[in-house]
């Protein structure tokens, strides 16, 4: 069966560089043979995690994201960097998904043994590199395997001129290699006896 990946950018704004970058990662994964579902977090609006809200009933959007993750083998994420870390949007999304499922099973288990590929974009010179370190660690704590390849696209205003348009051939190839590594890892897993 083909490798199935869930992809999103960690930004909501229309002109987001990360929303422009994520299609490049998706393109690399599709070229490597994966089936990719690209979602917009804007379509899954969630409050900041609040245990009282959860006690009244999990938000429908959180349930939808849990169901989506359950149907996929891994994640592709393009994240902004806010003050040296990942945006609250990304962490909040991961936190809601990690909560127990409707049938009482662990939400964290949804992430277990899945494989992730991460990239970032920023108008600054470092391209959000520090956010990748934080996101990598957060994903690892959830049980995902994050491939060692990663790309931080700096000077994004000059390089990411439109959706899927990364104006730097070497970096475009590097983003494609991140996706290819995710697919390769998953193929090895899926081919291996349990
Ligand atoms: C930023 N930005 C930023 N950039 C960066 O390279 N390192 C950083 O630490 C920060 N910190 C930061 C904090 C906050 C609160 C905001 C709003 C922004 C700038 C950031 O990279 C820029 O706004 C990007 O355009 C955000 O990504 P999207 O929305 O273009 O995908």
UniProtKB/TrEMBL annotation:
Identify the SUPFAM superfamilies for this entry: Flavoproteins
Domain of life the protein comes from: Bacteria
Q: Which InterPro entries did the record assign?
A: Flavoprotein-like_sf, FMN_Rdtase-like_dom, NAD(P)H-dep_reductase
Does the UniProt entry include the keyword Flavoprotein?
A: yes
Coiled coil ranges: none
Any Pfam family hit: FMN_red
This chain's source organism reads Lysobacter antibioticus
- Return the protein name: NADPH-dependent FMN reductase family protein
Kindly list the residue ranges recorded as spanning the membrane.
none
Q: Mind listing the GO molecular function terms for this protein?
A: FMN binding; oxidoreductase activity
Q: Does the keyword Flavoprotein apply?
A: yes
An example GO CC term for this entry is: cytosol
- What cofactors does this protein use? FMN
Every NADPH-dependent FMN reductase-like domain range: 4-157
| Keywords for the protein's UniProt record, in alphabetical order | Flavoprotein, FMN
């Amino acid at each position: 069966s083909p490798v199935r990946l869930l992809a999103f950018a960690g930004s909501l704004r229309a002109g987001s560089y990360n929303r422009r970058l994520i299609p490049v990662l998706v393109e690399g994964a599709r070229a490597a043979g994966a089936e990719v579902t690209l979602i917009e977090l804007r379509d899954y609006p969630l409050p900041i995690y609040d245990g009282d809200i959860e006690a009244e009933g999990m938000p429908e959007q959180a349930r939808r994201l849990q169901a989506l993750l359950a149907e996929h083998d891994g994640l592709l994420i393009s994240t902004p960097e806010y003050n040296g870390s990942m945006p609250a949007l990304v962490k909040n999304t991961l936190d809601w998904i990690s909560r127990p499922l409707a049938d009482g099973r662990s939400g964290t288990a949804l992430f277990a043994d899945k494989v992730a590929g991460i990239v970032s974009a920023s108008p600054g010179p470092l391209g959000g590199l520090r956010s990748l370190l934080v996101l990598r660690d957060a994903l690892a704590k959830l049980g995902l395997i994050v491939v060692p390849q990663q790309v931080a696209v700096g000077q994004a205003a000059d390089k990411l001129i439109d959706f899927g348009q990364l104006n730097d051939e070497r970096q475009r190839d590097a983003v494609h290699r991140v996706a290819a590594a995710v697919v390769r890892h998953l193929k090895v897993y899926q081919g291996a006896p349990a």
